[in-house]
Amino acid sequence: MRTSLQSSCSAAERGFALVYAVAMTVVAAMLCSALLTFSVASHKTSTTKANSLRARYLAEGALEVVKKSVQQDIANWLDPAREHKVRVDGEEVVVVTEPVGAERVVTDASGIQTAMRIFEMRATTNFRGYVGQAHRMLEVQATPTFQFAIFYASDLEMLPGPSMTIGGRVHANGDIYLGSGATLSLDTNYFRSVGDIYRRRKNDPSRSEGTVRVRRYVDNPFDPSRPTEWFTLSNRSQLTTGGVSSPSGFDSQFRGHDANTNGSYEDAGDLLPWGPGALHYTREPGAGEYGRGYTMQDAAHGVSHAVPPGFGSIAMYEPLPSGTGGDWKLNSATGRYQRVSAGTGDHKRGHYHEQASLKILRYDDGSWAAFDGEDTDITTEVYAAISSSEIYDARQAEGSTTRVPVLTIDLERLATTGYYPPNGILYTGRYGQGTGTAAGGFQLVNGSQLAGPLSVVSEASLYVKGDYNTVSKKPAALMADAVNLLSNSWNNTKTRGSAIPVATPTTYNAAIVTGNYTTNGNDYNGGLENLPRFHENWRDVRCSIRGSFVNLWESRYATGRWSSATYTPPIRDWGYDPDFNNIANLPPGTPLAVSARDVASW
């Protein structure tokens, strides 16, 4: 039997247990609430951080896009737009670009000049309510392309058969492939590849041939008092003979040789890996490890892209991406472009067509017309200097008997008409451009003595007959889809199946800007040694060129493939014209190569 005292204690215990349970439930609920609040806060903080970082990265990405746009604008003679709206991963970013301070010109020891200017870039975006900003100070450097001995917008292949020496700066925005049937000497203090440098053929990696040597750095390689020391880029066979393994010789693929396997590459018989080795072996003689410069550099050393103008610069007319805003429109009835009210057309004239003070245009029906810088028709005035003819271009004919229609411009006669281009730019364009023999072209004759500085520009092919600019040399350039060199003895009797006509020694003093095509598989594009195109038997005959060799685009119309069956190569006496080191001696309308580097970011 339970006593009243027992019953009272039991009730009290039950009451306490209930209170305790309720209290624990409240505490647990509070803990859960706190944990949930902490979790939500942590997630929110994490999301905030992620979105903020994302916004920042979008802004930085936009700066890279606009950086390239600034280079392209300047290379194409445009002022960079103040505001760009770009999309990065689908998000819009606004970038404001403004010049800071005045342009300055830096001249190196050899006289080569580079124009430099600072631009401030500010990028702003809003990503899911989070503002992202990025700032950058950009130094833009513009160098005339004709102050390079060789400038390629893509891959450069230098594989001459006979010995060849190239003096002057060399730059390629792609890879560089080097080889020789004898000795290739690079007498320069500037040899750069944005990609890699290979000691082999592009179309046949197994062929690593000849001797290639590069001059060690000196501040002015044109000064004969500076020391001349060479470093040989050994080919694969030369390394193998010395017990050194390499896929293709001393080049970007070379990983070094540690003769005694002690972990050092500084002992006798060792060779440094390409990255440090290219610097060490081409540094300034007698300057220890840290001289004033290094001759040879590539992607391993951070070489930056230098943007040149595009093919549109030599086009007769080029379409506008937006389809509006131009001053020209194709008249479907006449098949010719006509000027329309400003901003209502869908085309604009190419840069050189617009700038030229003498323009010669050939129409579909074979007729032609000439215009001065004000677009006044002067056909009658220059008629005696221009005639229609044809040339057999075996490369373009591709096995057919068809000849290429050309307009022949007699530069000697042109000088007597009073319409020699006063600003030095002569533009030639052709309606109905096609490929093969339909590419057409313009032939320059009697150009040994120019009446003044002259740049001849065409989106078609140029054929240059005989000595060019050899008497009282003037600044001169040849810019075209393809540049063809004909010797003094060319008499236009070549036909399909006939003997290749024999060339005689000929000299050309001009910078050359021309197209080519990309080597692909066994289809070799002919390399630098065939950048200017030949059509004669030049065996043991000297072809002398002093100027600059520039390849900015793939040929659009002169697309015939290179073949050694259509000509015999000359003795190539080619080199950079050091007169171009003085900016006053550059040809009219010299294009620019524009690079850029970040000097500050925040």
What do you see in this structure?
There is one protein chain. With 602 residues, the protein is an alpha/beta fold. The protein has 4 domains: 106 residues, no CATH class; 161 residues, no CATH class; 34 residues, no CATH class; 220 residues, no CATH class. It is 17% helix and 33% strand. It contains 7 helices and 34 strands. Strands 5, 8, 11, 15, 20, 21, 24, 26, 28, 30, 32 and 33 form a 12-stranded mixed β-sheet that branches. A 6-stranded mixed β-sheet has the order 22-23-25-27-29-31. The protein has a 5-stranded antiparallel β-sheet with strand order 1-2-3-4-34. A hairpin with a 2-residue loop joins strand 3 and strand 4. The chain is globular, with a radius of gyration of 33 Å. It starts with a helix and ends with a strand. The N terminus is likely disordered.
Distance between the termini: 88 Å
Q: Using DSSP, what is the number of strands?
A: 34
SS field, number of helical segments: 7
Largest sheet: 12 strands, mixed
| Helix fraction by DSSP (H/I, runs of at least 4) | 10-25%
Return residue spans where pLDDT drops below 50 for at least 5 consecutive residues: 1-23
Whole-number average pLDDT? 92
Number of domains: 4
Structural class: alpha/beta
Instruction: Note the overall shape.
Output: globular
Computed CA radius of gyration, to the nearest angstrom: 33 Å
**What proportion of the residues form beta strands (DSSP E)?**
25-35%
Note the main attributes of this structure:
single chain, 602 residues, alpha/beta, 4 domains, 12-stranded mixed beta sheet, 6-stranded mixed beta sheet, 34 strands, 17% helix, 33% strand, globular, disordered N terminus
